[in-house]
Design brief:
CATH topology of the largest domain: Cathepsin B, Chain A
CATH architecture of the largest domain: Alpha-Beta Complex
CATH class of the largest domain: Alpha Beta
Distance between the termini: 95 Å
Structural class: alpha+beta
Largest sheet: 5 strands, antiparallel
Strand order of the largest sheet: 13-19-14-17-18
Order of helices and strands: HEEEEEEEEEEEEHHHHHHEHEEEEEHE
Number of strands: 19
Radius of gyration: 32 Å
CATH superfamily of the largest domain: Cysteine proteinases
Number of domains: 2
Shape: elongated
Number of helices: 9
Length: 333
């Protein structure tokens, strides 16, 4: 009997010891499990092509190292997300990205992707190269009649330059760069006395050729095209815009389907194409975009080639001023 009682007491002590040892283990195990999951942001807006990092925070902190967070995009056509929470904004739209843990914690972030944004005189657009920011200079902002009526190519040049870090007004571009490149004597030889004086003193429109040369002088590489096969030109411009790089287009004032692009022959900066195939344009005579004209309409029915002596620095007549300029970017890029 004594021997049996001894065994019972010994067994009880052993069980008590094991239980006592397990208490801190259980407590430790419980404290290492996450019981709160939060994100650094629950709402994000960005431009197409951008990458944004979401960060998940786990509480308690000791659980963070041993807890895997699983990420998921509600629509991979709009946003993709990798295992580290890095979002890639693919296309315009809205979706939700979720983060979860194995023990059932889940949090969400609403993501809005935009392609472009006009805000006053600042125009931003998402491109494969990142977000480009243009300053929408307007002809009407600059004093005398020349800029109001004939400064579209000069103003388009200033708009393009602003996206690459050169912030010159149209007046500075015309009266600075042009005078340095083309002397009064050169202008007289090519234009005659009256035309030369007007051009030299800032009262004649620049040609596409001169706009191209001014941009090259700044280190902005570009390819001017003066005369072209229209179908091939449309294909080339469309492919160029897909790279996120802009184009200056010289357009006519023809009416097509009851709509007129401009009252006079005009230069337009095209920075992209939206989901409806509308050309996203910055217009020098009014810093806005044409949201009612498709790229096909713009290129097939309004873009105008040069048909004459397009080597002239100034626009004497429309046949010397037509064409387009493909902007390739800074020389060192």
């Amino acid at each position: 009997m004594k021997r049996l009682l001894h065994r019972i007491i010994l067994s009880f002590c052993l069980l008590a010891g094991i239980y006592t040892a397990m208490i801190p283990l259980r407590a430790g195990a419980a404290s290492s499990k996450p019981f709160r999951l939060t994100l650094n942001s629950t709402s994000v807006t960005g431009f197409q092509g951008q990458t944004i990092r979401l960060k998940a925070e786990i509480t308690p902190k000791k659980a963070a190292q041993s807890t895997q967070v699983y990420w998921k995009s509600g629509n991979k056509k709009v946003v993709t997300v990798d295992e580290n929470g890095t979002l890639t904004l693919v296309a315009p739209g809205t979706t939700v990205v979720s983060a979860r843990t194995r023990n059932g914690l889940r949090v969400f972030c609403s993501v809005r992707v935009i392609q472009y944004q006009f805000s006053g005189r600042t125009v931003k657009i998402g491109t494969p190269e990142g977000v480009k920011t243009y300053h929408a200079y307007a002809q009407k902002d600059y004093g005398y009649g020349y800029y109001r009526n004939y400064g579209c190519v000069t103003t388009a040049t200033a708009i393009i330059a602003s996206a690459y870090g050169f912030h010159y007004t149209p007046v500075q571009i015309h009266e600075g760069s042009v005078k340095q490149k083309y002397s009064e004597r050169y202008a007289v030889t090519n234009m005659g006395q009256a035309g030369a004086l007007n051009a030299y003193y800032g009262k004649a429109a620049l040609s596409v050729r001169t706009a191209s040369q001014i941009l090259k002088n700044m280190g902005i590489e570009n390819r001017p095209v003066y005369s072209y096969d229209r179908a091939k030109a449309v294909k080339q411009i469309r492919e160029h815009l897909k790279t996120g790089k802009p184009v200056i287009i010289k357009a006519n004032n023809n009416t097509y389907n009851g709509k007129r692009l401009a009252n006079i022959h005009h230069a337009v900066v095209v920075i992209g194409v939206d989901a409806q195939d509308h050309a996203i344009c910055i217009s020098p005579n009014n810093p806005t975009y044409y949201n009612s004209i498709t790229l096909e309409t713009l290129l097939y029915h309004h873009m105008t080639p040069a048909s004459g002596n397009y080597s002239r620095p100034y626009m004497i007549e429309m046949r010397t001023a037509g064409g387009y300029i493909l902007i390739d970017g800074l020389k060192d890029d």
